[in-house]
Amino acid sequence: MSNQECESPEPEEEQAKPDSPFFEDIERRELHSEILSRSDSKGKDGKFTFSIEQVSSLAEKLEEMMFLIYDRHNKQMQDKLQELSEIMERISQIQTELRQVCHTVEAAYKDLCVQPEV
Fold this sequence. Notes:
Layout: H1 3-6, H2 12-15, H3 21-38, H4 52-113
Helix pairs in contact: 3-4
Region (Disordered): 1-23
Coiled coil: 70-97
Keywords: Coiled coil
């Protein structure tokens, strides 16, 4: 067992999610391992040779990984945008409250500054 296999930066519950970075990393390693295992045979010119089926299979796996990553990032972005929308709404409410307080303070100041007529 290598040091990389022993390391587990994510908490236990994070590892249980199929769309977590933990599984994404495992899938990436598996794909990399598969590419390396299929590329053991080099052609006469020293270049890797792959069959159309191998390339197609690897391309499909890569596409699946990309869609999984895209979906996860899309969900994260949607969550962040929702949070931002809620925060902006709260800021708008606070601005309205602040304007009301300013108008109240302004009115109170004017009332204090008015000279009584003698």
